[in-house]
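Let's sit down with a protein and look at its sequence and fold side by side. We need material for that, and I hope you will provide a protein of your own picking. Once you have written the record down, we can walk along the chain together.

***
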Amino acid sequence: MEVQYQDLGIKDGYLYEIIATTISFKNDKKIPNASCMGIRITNNKVIIKPYHNTQTYKNLKDNSLICINFVKEISLYTLAALKGPYLSKKYERFPQKYYEYYHIKNNNNSLKTLKINQIPYLRDAWAIIICRTKKSIKIDKEDVFGPVNLTEFELEMLSIVKLKDSFKLFNRAENLTLETLILTTRLKIAFEKNDYDLVKDYQSKIDNGIKEIIHFNNNLEVSKSINLIQEYIRNLKLEF
């Protein structure tokens, strides 16, 4: 029987944190990308709002395909969010060993326009939703960093695959880790903008979050995430 998104425990209109995987090509070489994103699903449509400076946005614009990964390991969210020059070399990109490829069968006339027929997904995901862009709207908004440009993509679901029996609900330590991870990504932006007040504010919240996580935690995945967050912040070299 075909899997519906409601079968995964997803409720319409709720915000879910997922790992989005997309793909680009350079000299015929596949370059997968994984990023943490928030999504909402309403009336069989997935809504996602990537910033214009992200690889997820660029890949969606180039080939319209994306995979929504539901993952229970909090350390994978951490690797997807913090990849780049502030972690050790092996984590500069999201590790290749976590990727598999889903092949899309273009036997439907509506799929003939797809530029590619494969999309990366995470082998540790318990469920995935393969989507393509249906329409997009540019949005200008203000946040604490000033004006930002993003695009709201409405995605059509092509395939829903349940890979494992899991309806993972994060425990208190994992939820706190996710909140601390989001604060860490914002700390980097504040640092790059030389906003000392925001840096101090985020640093204080991160320190308090880590203390609370340590109080609750007996989870190896959480410990790995906290170690990566602390390494990332050390490598930012927060000096003004």
Observations:
- The beta strands are 15-26, 29-42, 45-48, 65-70, 99-103, 118-122, 127-143, 146-162.
- The longest helix spans residues 172-192.
- The two ends are 59 Å apart (CA to CA).
